[in-house]
Structures are given as structure tokens and as C-alpha cells.
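User: Working on a comparison across species. This one is Heavy metal-(Cd/Co/Hg/Pb/Zn)-translocating P-type ATPase from Limnospira indica PCC 8005. Can you predict its structure so I can line it up against the others?
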Amino acid sequence: MTDNQQSSCCSCNGDDRHSDNLVSEVIPLAIITAIYILALIFNNWLKLAVWGWGEYVVLIPLYLLTGWEILVSAGKNIWRGQIFDETFLMSLATLCAIAINEVPEAVAVMLFYRIGEGFQEFSVQRSRRSIKSLLAVRPDTANLLINGEIKTMSPQLVNVGSSIVVKAGEKIPLDGEIISGTSQIDTSPLTGESLPRAVKPGEIVLAGTINQTGLLTIKVTKPFNESSISKILELVESAQSRKAKTEKFITTFARYYTPIVVSLAIAIALIPPLVNLGSFQEWFSRALILLVISCPCGLVISIPLGYFGGVGGAAQQGILVKGSTFLDDLAAVKTVIFDKTGTLTAGVFEVTKIVPHHHFTEAELIEIAAKIESLSNHPLAQAIREYYGDSPTETLIEDYQEIPGCGVKGKLQNRTVIAGGDRLLHLEKIDHPLCDVGGTVIHLAVDYRYAGYILISDKVRPDSVAAIEALKKQGVQKIVMLTGDNQTVADRLAKTLNIDEYYAELMPEDKVKQLEKLLSPDHRKVAFVGDGINDAPAIARADVGIAMGGMGSDAAIETADVVIMTDSPSYVSRAIAIGRKTRRIVWQNIGLAMGIKGFFIILGIFGLASIWSAVFADVGVALLAILNATRIFGKPVN
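Assistant: Here's the predicted structure for Heavy metal-(Cd/Co/Hg/Pb/Zn)-translocating P-type ATPase from Limnospira indica PCC 8005:
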């Protein structure tokens, strides 16, 4: 079963059942293995004459226990007309081994096959789960205003044109237009924009955003099933269903390998006796031995073990890969798309520059700003207070006003202080030398005279620059940044990080559209890296969705194919390096298995190989594959 075949909308209970099923398979398999080993020791060391029938009594049940599902699967496939697959060859080879009294070999072949399947099952058991966190963002209730009274009901039951009331701290349940009230709206669930947006009557607000401060009355403009949050849910579901299903190599290989081997065995059993090159019994025995030798156990186990090593090695380094398919996809990544806020930046604001004017000093400017902003809970005000350090709350502020979307105004020690954006300075008709500073800025004026400005920036993660450099050294052809922030902020960050392309002021559906433009029809995969609920649709739509799991939203983590358990974007290049190394190891294992298998097939044709030598070689291949796969563990892969 591939990861993509597993439903991305399965429940958590489904995950629990899946884990229970795995445990229920591992324990019996371990018991069977122990009994099998003891039986071989009993047979080979003690050499008792009574072991003849005892061998069948002990080993045939073990064979059925390990191989029953494979036998049933082969039978069903034959009934459907799908004859030549690995289960058919496994069944035919082992039944032939029993027919020529090689029961231990038949059990060994089935046992090794099941162990390989167990490794593969374990490597993908933690695949996609339901996007329960995204569903949690969806508002559960709406406060419907009817004749001056409020009635709480489901948003699905509210009609277009109705009026709803949204209190401070509540989610906006439906898209609509503000009738009355002003507030600050947290739009990060939809846009990823870290700064709250000031809203006033006449402006449109979207479902899923959060009302932070004032009381709002909103006229509903869209039904719930057409609201922004519903569209995000639909985008996630449709994007995941559109992911290409990766067909495993062994299944494709078996389509050609199995009929060739079976045809070869039939030819060996029939042709030589017909041309008097030996007895039919001799060549029939060789044909049966050839089928046992040809059993793809070593090949089957070498592939999942390689991926298991990659998944385990990545987990050791704080990278959760939700299945072997995504290791292949990581190895083929040529374009990496980053969301900005929370991924390349920390989503935390800090003062980066203080520029005083006239007779003010930097210390005076930051002190005035911290005092006038002491009553505001705006993130920019908090950044200024944190930079100032000392508590400014003891200062008496008279005639304090907080002007939504503009700034604050008040009197400090009989001086009128204005702090805010360029728009506020124009409203107050204050002359100032710069309008567009090129970033998020707080201008200050004292007694209506311009005093300077404070530049505030979202903190760039410490290793963002190194992350971009590492990706370029790996041969990633294009690095793109998508953000809901404004053009100026995006441009400055793109230049700082040396990013190839960027797109600003994007809604979630815009991010998906930009991502789809960058998707390649060939094998050059596109990875998207994000952390927020708003990133979930793009994460799901990308060839490889990567979530920053340290502080990322649960929705992004549940949707992603790869989860970075720290907040370091440099781990993206590390994940790609692990994917590439894993791919090399897997192909090394395939080459090794096929080479040894081919060698023993040739020996078997000429009667120079026994079944046990072939099984022993197969076990040797499996052990070499295990040792080779463990190379992915240990020191970080760069």
C-alpha cells in the first residue's frame, strides 16, 4: 500500500486501529520466527530420525501462518486475471519447494517476505491523518441578530442578508460587510499576515478570521458553504486527491520478471528432456529449484529496508517523513517554495532601527514611543516596549486615543505625542521628510513636530540565509517566497535572503494558484514549506508538502508529507539530502539483490546451486541491505 493510497481524511481512531494491527502482526511473526529457528536447530544439531514427519507437523503450520495471506492474495489475483505478480511467484516458488521436500526453505522464503512487508508497513503507518485542526478553525456558532435580540445558531443556517454580532475574541463565522463597530482583525488564519488589520463600517471581513478588540455587527454576504474557511477545506481535500500515486518499483518489476521466470522454468522442465539432455525428473527438479531461487524475497525486502533506513535516519535528525514515497519525491525536488511568516521569519516583531529628527536622540525617541504605546496591545507596540525594557506603565497619559489602522495619540507631561503610520501623520497634517520608509514603521511627532521614526521588522530566523545557500549548493534550481505581507516587506526580505522569486499580498487560494504555475510536468518536484493553517492547501497541493512543526499549526502538520520538528528552515536542505542518499542506497540494494539473484539463477539452470544455497544468498542480500540502509543513521546528512 502506498502512502497516497491511504486516505488523508481518516480519523485518529483509524490510526489507532492501524497501530494495533501492526502490533498484532509483529508479535505472532516474532513467535513464528522463534519456533522456526528452534525447529532448524532441533533438525540440524540433534539429527533425530523421528524428525521426518515432525518437520511437516511443525513447519507446515508455520508456512500457512506466514504465507496464508500471500496465498489467498495470489488466488484472488488469478481469479481476476492478474496472474503475474510477486504474490503469484512467491506462492508458486514456495509450493514447489514443499513439493520437492524443501519445507524449511519454503517457510524461510515466506518468513523473510513477511518481515520485509513488516518493515514496509512500519515505515508508512504514521501517514496522513484527518485535518482536525483545520476543521477546528471553522466557526461552530453564529450570533444572529433578530429584532434587537441575539440568537445563537449554526453558521450553515444563517441566510445571506442577515445580521450577525461578533464579540471581541470570537471567530467571524461568515463572510460579510461590517455595518457598525470598529476593531482589529487577526487575519493570520487565512492570509498568514502577522499584523492585525483595522476594520470599520463598510469593509468586508472573512469567515475564519478573529475579532480581537471591538464589537462588530456584520451583514452576511455569502452562505457558509461559499465562505473563505469552507473554500480552504475544499482546497485541502481536492489538492490531496489530485496528488499523483507513485507505483512501487517492485510491482512494476514483477509484471515483467514473474512471467519471464515462470516461462524459463517451464522451458527448463520440458525442453532438455525432449532433446535427450537428461531425464524429466532431473530437469523438473532444476525447474522447481529455479523457481525457489527466483523468488524475489531479497529484492522485496531490500527496497523497504532502504526506505526504512531513510525514514528512521530522518527521524533521528528531527525530520518526520510520512512514507517512503516522499523520500523519492524529496530526492527529485528542484523548486522550493517558502511561506514567509513563521517559516523564513519567526512571526515575532523587533525594533531594528531608530532614526531621530531635530534635537531628539535615539534614547529619547524610544522612551517616548514606549510610554505612549504602553496602553496598546498591538504587536508593534509590544515590540517597542520590549526593546525599551523598562516598564513605562507608571507614566500618566492624558486624552489617550487609539485610532484603528493608524496609531495612537495622547499627552505625556503636557506634550502631545502622536505615534503611528504615515497615514496618521497626514491626518494630523504633520510635515515629515519620508512617507515610504520601506518597511513597517512607527512615526513619532511631539507637539505636532516630527520627531523621527522607528523601524520594526519581523525577526528573520537565524538560519534562513544559510538555508537558502544550502539549497542552492544542492542544485535546487529555483527558490520562491509566497506571503500575505505587503510588497515592500516582501521585496526587502527576498533581497536579504537572496531568494529568486517572490509573490506578495496573497490569500490562500492565490498561494495555491502560484504554486500550480510552478508545478512541473516532468520529474522535477516542487516542495512547499509552510507552518500555518492558511498554508494547508498549498502544502497539500505541492509534490512535497513540508510543515515547520516546532511552532507550526496542527493543520499544516497533519496535511504535510514531511514535518520538520524544529523551527529551522535549514532542515529543508537536510531533508532533501536524506532523500537523495536514501535513493542511492535503495538503488544500491536493488542492484545488489538483482546481481546476486541473477548469479544464482544461472547456477540453478546448470544444476550448480541448491535451494539452501539460494536461500542463504537471499538472506545474505537481506543482511547486506540492512547494513547498507543503516548508513543513513548517525551523523546529520548535509
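For your comparison, note: The first strand starts at residue 142 and ends at 146.

User: Helpful, thanks.
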